[in-house]
Structures are given as C-alpha cells and as structure tokens.
Amino acid sequence: MRIVSLCPSLTELVFDLGRGSDLVGITRYCVHPADGVTRIPKVGGTKDPDVARIVALKPDLVLLNEEENRLDDAESLRAAGLPLHVSLPRTVSETADMVRSIAEALDRRDAGAAIATDIETRCARVEAAAVGLAPVRFAYLIWRKPWMTVNHDTFAHALLSLAGGRNVFATAPDRYPELQLPQLVEAAPDVVFLCTEPYAFADEHRGELARLTGFERERFRIADGEYLSWHGSRTADGIDYAEGLVRDARVLRQPPPEAR
C-alpha cells in the first residue's frame, strides 16, 4: 500500500498502526517519529503541498485533516482520481472514531482498536476523577500579535475540559478568536495556558504577559501544543497531560494553609 500523509498527527498515527514503511510522502512538518520520518520524501507543507508530486507518487490513499489542509488541495487531489481520507475530530470520542476509521482503511483494525480503546479508557478515568473537584477556569492562548485563544469547538478545549477545566472564552463565536488583553483581564481565569504550537510560546512570554495584564507570573503556564492539539495515537497521553495541567492549576489557585 502506498500512503501520503499531509498532517503531522496522522503521520505519527500511521507509524503507530504499523504502516510507516508504506508512507511514500509526508509534509515537512511531519516530525514524529523522528527516526522514521527522515527517510520519507517531503511533498511540501500542510498548506502548500506539491499536488503534482503527490499525484506522481500514485498513492493508494492520501490522509488529510480539514483544519490543517486546504479544501482547494483536497479537491485537486480528488479530481486527479486519488482516494482521500479526510478527518477533523473535535472531541476525544471523535478521535477514537477517527483512529478506527483510518485503521480500517489501512487494514490495521486490531492496532486501531487498541489505540482507540486506550483513548476511551483514559477519557473515562479522567472524567470520573474530576467529579466533585472544583473547576479550574482557564484561557488557552495559541498566538501572539495578535493574541488569539480558542472556543469550545476545539480539541484543546475538549481535552482540558475532561479534567474539570472551564474555558473562559468557550462561548466566543469564532473557533480561534482574536483577543485583546483587557478581555483576558476581565475574564480573570485561574490559569492561562500558553501553548508551544502553532505559536512557540516560551518562558519569556510569561513575564511579558504578567507585565501587560498585572496577573502574577505563576498564573501563566507553558503547555505542550502537540499533546493538546495532535489527535491520533498521541491523544491518550494528551488526556493524561491535560489532566496534569488542570491538577497543577487547581493546586495553584488554593490559598496557602496559613491563609485558609
């Protein structure tokens, strides 16, 4: 089988399903697993794939993500007669369904079932553990200049909500709304997660935002964007990672013993 993957998380999933040796084309952003992707030809980026080159590779299946990839490119590939698998899971359950669907397409049903079941099992555990715990109000920033956050219709929101997170911008009309810092101050989240992708937030930005908002520096926490936005075989660990972020934030918001 000849496979082209135009989404980094799906490339990783193909390897974890045992089909990495069948990949004949991936994007330059496909970096996991590091020891497996180096040998595979790159066919451009997620937003600017070389459609002609992909067609010339004569893949049996092209994997795409509705958010990562452009509709025009998908239509061009489809018009060339290439079979496509297009997905966009927004929740954990949808991710498990996607894993099973791709595994079916790649004839790796058992491997897909194992990954999907692990996702569902961890999801149930984290949800159960959060029952009765105080919710943690959070904001999740994905970009700087302009500042941008996420609403309820996003994967990061879904993962953080499992463990009792409450997104202060959940009701924003856009999935990725631009944000003015006075809005962040007014929303007064318990914690502000600064993700490492698509924008590479780093420790320096914690200090910058503390100065601009008047919030204490500890309220800003760096969050691994791969665990919180890659859907596929990484999702099971992402569920546990999100739980840890929310748990740490819950501890952060508690007053010290002498103040209780």
Brief overview:
With 260 residues, this protein is of the alpha/beta class. It has 2 domains: 3-88, Rossmann fold; 117-259, Nitrogenase molybdenum iron protein domain (Rossmann fold, 3-Layer(aba) Sandwich). It contains 11 helices and 8 strands.
Descriptive notes:
The longest helix has 22 residues, at 109-130. The protein is 44% helix and 13% strand. With 260 residues, it is of the alpha/beta class. Helix 6 (109-130) packs parallel to helix 11. Strand 3, helix 4 (71-79) and strand 4 (84-87) form a beta-alpha-beta unit. It is built from 11 helices and 8 strands. 41% of the residues are buried. The chain folds into 2 domains: 3-88, 3-Layer(aba) Sandwich (Rossmann fold); 117-259, Rossmann fold (3-Layer(aba) Sandwich).
Shape field? globular
CATH architecture of the largest domain: 3-Layer(aba) Sandwich
CATH superfamily of the largest domain: Nitrogenase molybdenum iron protein domain
* Residue-averaged pLDDT: 96
The radius of gyration is 20 Å
Overall helicity: 40-55%
* Biggest beta-sheet profile: 4 strands, parallel
Q: Tell me the total number of β-strands.
A: 8
Main features:
260 residues, alpha/beta, Rossmann fold, 2 domains, 4-stranded parallel sheet, 11 helices, 13% strand, globular
Question: How is this fold's topology laid out?
Answer:
Blueprint: E1 3-5, H1 8-16, E2 23-26, H2 34-37, H3 51-57, E3 61-65, H4 71-79, E4 84-87, H5 92-105, H6 109-130, E5 136-141, H7 155-162, E6 165-167, H8 181-187, E7 191-195, H9 203-213, E8 220-223, H10 225-229, H11 235-253
Parallel strand pairs: 1-2, 1-3, 3-4, 5-6, 5-7, 7-8
